[in-house]
Structures are given as C-alpha cells and as structure tokens.
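Supplementary Methods, section 5.1.

A reviewer requested that the exact input to the structure prediction be made available. We therefore reproduce it here, unchanged from the version used in the analyses.
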Amino acid sequence: MMGAQVAFDGDFGGARNVFVRVGSGRLHLYDQPPRDHGSGAVHHIGIRTDDLESLEARLRAKGAAFRSGIRDFGAWKYIMCPAPDGVLLELFQADPEKLDGDAAAYFSDWLDG
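The structure derived from this sequence is encoded token-by-token as follows.
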C-alpha cells in the first residue's frame, strides 16, 4: 500500500536483517527481540552515517553511553547506544563497494541522490 520494496533480506551480525525502501527513505528491520522484555516491540532504530568514528567521538564527548566499542564486519560497522526513551540506536556505516548483490545496490544509491 505504501510502495515499500524489500531491497535486502539476509544475515548481518548473526541475525536476519531486512532493508526496505519506502519512497526516498529506508527502514532496517532486525530480527531480535528486545532484551529487557518490557519496553516495547522495537529492539533498535538504525541510523546511517558516513563517518562512524567521528560521530562516536562527538557523542562520547557529550556524555553518551555506548554498550561496546565499534563492531566492524568489514563492509558494515556499527555501535549501539541507548536513546533517552530506552530504545537502542544503532549508528552504522556501510561500504557498498565491499557488499554484494541487493545489499550493495541498497546502500550505493542511498547517498547519491
């Protein structure tokens, strides 16, 4: 009904990830239930950046608490931090030149237009 299109449905970081295009926006759905079993149905919200290390440094300087350091999978790296409402934010950077197939296409056209 909203013209959404599944661009990638596969494994990243040991769990099923689904990337969906909705107009010029993107959704990232991650198949993992919330760990605290009480704050709601959303485990986290993914936000893409083109310079994860700088973003992490700026947020740490402002007092943001992270669950761990940056996790780097080569083509994909991310770090998690809690938002004020308890929902996790996944701050991530993807390198389309290191990805294959639908995942590469999904991320390569994202910043071009």
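The CA atoms of residues 58 and 91 lie 13 Å apart. These observations are discussed further in the main text.
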